Amino acid sequence: MMKYKTILFAGILTSIFFSLNSAKAFHKDVYYPRAPEALLEILQDMDNPFPPTKKNIKEGNKVYFGKGLCVKCHGVKGKGVKVPGHSPRNFTDAKWQDVRTDGEMMWVLKNGSPGTSMPIRVGKVISEKEGWKVILFIRSLAGA
Ligand code: HEC
């Protein structure tokens, strides 16, 4: 009886160890996709339905600083402020801008970023239309 308990305990410890470890591995590289692997192809093919006009970017700016509350975690310049757990991306990083597609960002806006403090935004506090526009605003921060 004692032996079984020991084995069970060791098993629980091992699974905790591996889940902590994989959570770490998931976030190690800032360029690593945040959306599920199985959806990547579809998301990467998805175009933003709105063109990056001055007006659309300005509307995105309003969402970012206003009801989206993005500024609270992503900062005034988009470089990110310190939050518990995984840090927000640096939106001004040209390499990150290059790697990440609008469709992948929309997935994060609709689902949050699992395992981080990035909350669901589209469908909760902003509309899908506002989501696409705030993405245009994030694009305008490149190299800023
Ligand atoms: C409570 C803090 C918080 C708020 C509010 C917040 N975010 Fe985030 N966001 C984060 C964190 C932390 C991450 C990093 C998670 C990750 O690695 O995917 C993140 C990640 C992201 C990403 C994904 C980055 C990537 O690599 O794909 C996008 C896009 C994003 N946020 C946009 C927004 C927008 C737009 C808003 C407002 C509508 C917003 N966030 C509001 C904390 C926040």
What features would you highlight for this structure?
144 residues, mainly alpha, Cytochrome Bc1 Complex, Chain D, domain 2, globular, binds heme C
Strand content: under 5%
Q: What is the helix fraction of residues, given as a range? A: 40-55%
- The CATH architecture of the largest domain would be Orthogonal Bundle
CATH superfamily of the largest domain: Cytochrome c-like domain
| Quantity of strands, as a count | 0
* Spatial separation of the terminal alpha carbons: 64 Å
CATH topology of the largest domain: Cytochrome Bc1 Complex, Chain D, domain 2
Pattern of helices and strands: HHHHHHH
CATH class of the largest domain: Mainly Alpha
Spans of at least 5 consecutive residues whose pLDDT stays below 50 are 16-26
Radius of gyration: 19 Å
Largest sheet: none
- Which ions and ligands are bound to the chains? heme C
Per the principal axes of the C-alpha atoms, what is the gross shape?
Answer: globular
Tally the structural domains.
2
**Backbone structural class:** mainly alpha
Helical stretch tally? 7
The pLDDT mean sits at: 86
Structure in words:
The chain is an all-alpha fold. It folds into two domains: 1-30; 31-139, Cytochrome Bc1 Complex, Chain D, domain 2 (Orthogonal Bundle). 54% of the residues lie in helices and 0% in strands. The chain has seven helices and no strands. It has helices at 2-28, 40-45, 54-65, 70-74, 94-99, 102-111, 128-139. The protein is globular and about 70 Å long. Residues 16-26 have low confidence and may be disordered. It binds heme C. Residues 34, 68-70, 72-74, 83, 86, 88-89, 100, 104-105, 108-109, 113, 116-119, 121, 126, 134 line the site of heme C.
